[in-house]
Amino acid sequence: MVTAFHLAVYLPVLFPVAAAVGARPLAERLEPQLATWLLTVSALALAALSRAALGVLTVAGWCGCRWPHWWGAGR
């Protein structure tokens, strides 16, 4: 079963696949300098998102806990 937590963690890891598919058509339509800057900035942002998502997975693995239970504990 896919929960909101799973989407929040795994979706940033899958975003680079969509970016890779759209990179070539985008680079062909834009001027080279603008395309280079846009692709570079998007690659850095996607790398940061992937790193953050993997960091969350690592911390959750170290804790040996399930974070969605923490979120519902205050109710």
List key phrases describing it:
0% strand, mainly alpha, 75 residues, 3 helices
Structure at a glance:
The chain has 3 helices and no strands.
Secondary structure tally: strands? 0
Helix content percent band:
over 70%
Radius of gyration: 17 Å
Structural class by sheet pairing and helices? mainly alpha
Average pLDDT taken over every residue = 79
Commentary on this structure:
The structure is a single chain. Helices cover 84% and strands 0% of the residues. The protein is mostly helical and 75 residues long. The longest helix is centred in the middle third of the chain and has 32 residues. The model has no long low-confidence stretch (mean pLDDT 79).
Give the topology.
Blueprint: H1 4-29, H2 32-63, H3 67-71
Helix pairs in contact: 1-2
